[in-house]
Amino acid sequence: MARSSLLLSPNSVLANALLRSIDILRPRVHAARPSRIAFVVGTQINGAPHLGTNLVQSAAFLLAKVARREFSIDTTVRFGALDNAPYEVVLDPETHSAYQQTYYHALGKDKISDLIDAYYQEFFDSLSEATDTEYTVETYTDQQATPGFRAEFLRTLERLEDIRWWMAPSHGVVHTRLPCPECGWAEKRADRTKLAHLDEDGAVFTAVCLDHGDYEVHIDPEGDQPYLDLATLYRNLVKERALGRNTAVLSVMMKGGDWAFGCQLVDGALGALGTPTPQMPVRIFTPQVLAPTGAKLSKSLLREQGKDALPTDVEPWMLDTTAWPGSIDNYVDALVWLVGELLTDPKHFFRSFTVKELGRLMTARPADLDTRPRAYEMGIYKRYFDLIAAGRKTTEIRVNDSSRRKIKKGSLIRFRCRDEEVLTRVTRISRYTDFEEMFEAESVASVNPTATKEDQLANIRQIYPAEREALGVVAIGIELVEHHGAGEGA
Ligand SMILES: [Zn+2]
Fold first, then answer.
1. Based on the number of CB atoms within 10 Å of its own CB, is 120 exposed (0-12), middle (13-18) or buried (19 or more)?
2. How far away, in angstroms, is 230 Cα from ligand 1 center?
3. Coil, helix or strand at residue 487
4. What value, to the nearest 5°, has the Cα angle with vertex 180 and ends 178 and 186?
5. What's the CA angle centered on 331, arms 326 and 336, to 5 degrees?
6. How far is the CA of 207 from the centre of ligand 1 (A)?
7. DSSP for 414-478?
8. Helix 122-131 × helix 328-342 angle, to 10°
9. CA dist., res. 490 & res. 471, Å (int)
């Protein structure tokens, strides 16, 4: 197939250890047996996204789909909108201390919400549809206000001496930013922010505002005020500690590959805090998008140096993806195809790509991507696949997990079995509490014309354990649309 020549990647330590990229989650899935996996992806809300950002997000959705199939566990994507990104930084003319204002403080909740809608809503809806994966959006502002985040932050303060060199190896000063209650500006490097008191009721900090002088803030686990802004590494430490406590949901941190360098400091701090192994974060680093120099493709470079600093290989949409010459669905289909190709081999996924190489790959995408109907995908055993392809099986049975809830009459479902696929259209949908109730109502022969009701019930319960059946059962009426056999280039 063309696939083998599309990408060429050397072997690597990680790729050598994995058959498939998703296997990186397997040890934790086996050890923790979570009821759900959430792929957590955080993005700074500071203007139009570039390709690197959209690549991490697309990988989160695609891996959620792959993990759901691979581990038979429901999966979702949690999008964290980092609205604490610096909007403006000024210097105190006397002390030269830097002060900053976050996007949230500069724009307010409504405008942040508008920004998320403008840059991500349609993109995520399209990715969600293309990968049958539900997602939620949470801002940093919402997150820092939760009791879980605040309690976790307060616990780190008790051990500040143990973590401060991990969080700030050069000077040992952890950057806790507590915006002035009057104007919302905060010391960027916490130069004059001091922890004055800490007990079981919370923490008292003192700080100095550029305009309003000395002020005091009190952080306790219950109240959602005042605002708590943390430097990047510290924020990740607190977030990963808080998510790790919920062992029923495995949170997988999706991060651009450049994070691999920084995470050892977070891990050092997690270790210093005595974080138990089952609560240590699971992270997946995604391919970096590199300029020809090998530096990460960055919008700040563009802002600081102007368009002339850009290499000729950078296409406009790579820096500002709203410049993509096509619809959002078209862009998402191209990205899903691209990440799907990268995921065909861990050698291709756990590496970086230059903009030139990504440009080449995008150009090599199938020409008919636009005309391919969006379809739900389901893997299926050969004996059932053959019955569907022959038109003899007209009812498909699944558990009603999050990926099935949107399926409706008229939806397309592509069934896959190794190299073969068959496209079907949904003629009806019926939902039941369990398999027994389903077989009372459905025609047994339409589910499988070759087996008795008792045998089918026994078979299906071997495929789905009781906790999956507890999600409910969905019977999907299907009719054939087209069938691609092996070697037909499906
Ligand atoms: Zn102030």
1. buried
2. 18
3. coil
4. 55
5. 155
6. 10
7. EEEETTEEEEEEEEEEEEESSHHHHHHHS-HHHH-TTS-HHHHHHHHHHHS-HHHHTT-EEEEEE
8. 50
9. 33
CA distance 458 to 466: 12
Please report which confidence band the pLDDT of residue 467 belongs to, taking 50, 70 and 90 as the band edges.
confident
Residue 302 confidence (pLDDT) above 90: no
pLDDT digits (tens, 9 = 90+) for 347-361: 999 999 999 999 999
Distance CA 362, CA 83 (A): 31
Q: Ligand 1 centroid vs 225 CA: distance in angstroms?
A: 16
Cβ–Cβ under 8 Å, residues 476 and 375: no
- Does residue 1 register a pLDDT over 60? no
CA 209–ligand 1 middle distance (angstroms): 5
CA angle 53, 129, 481 (to 5 degrees): 135
* Contacts within 8 Å (CB) and 24+ apart, 201-210: 202/154, 203/154, 203/157, 205/176, 205/178, 207/178, 207/180, 209/99, 209/180, 209/182, 209/183, 209/185, 210/90, 210/92, 210/99, 210/185
CA of 105 to the centre of ligand 1 (A): 12
**Residue 72 pLDDT exceeds 60:** yes
pLDDT tens column, 252-283: 999 999 999 999 999 999 999 999 999 999 99
Q: How far is CA 468 from CA 68, 435, 472, in A?
A: 12, 11, 8
Distance 441 CA to ligand 1 centre (A): 67
Query: What is the C-alpha separation between 167 and 181, in angstroms, rounded?
Result: 26
Task: Pull the structure tokens for residue 236.
Answer: 């990740």
Helices (H) and strands (E) counted in the chain, each on its own, are: 21, 20
179 Cα–ligand 1 center, Å: 8
Ligand 1 centroid to residue 183 C-alpha, Å: 4
- The answer to whether 482 and 422 have CB atoms below 8 angstroms apart is yes
Identify any residues that bridge with 396 across adjacent strands, giving them in sequence order: 476
Residue 3 has pLDDT above 60, yes or no: no
pLDDT band at 4 (very low <50, low <70, confident <90, very high): low
Encoding tokens for residue 114? 């508008």
Q: What is the mean pLDDT of the chain?
A: 91
8 A C-beta contact, residue 420 and residue 442: no
Rounded distance from Cα 215 to ligand 1 centre (Å): 9
CA of 214 to the centre of ligand 1 (A): 9
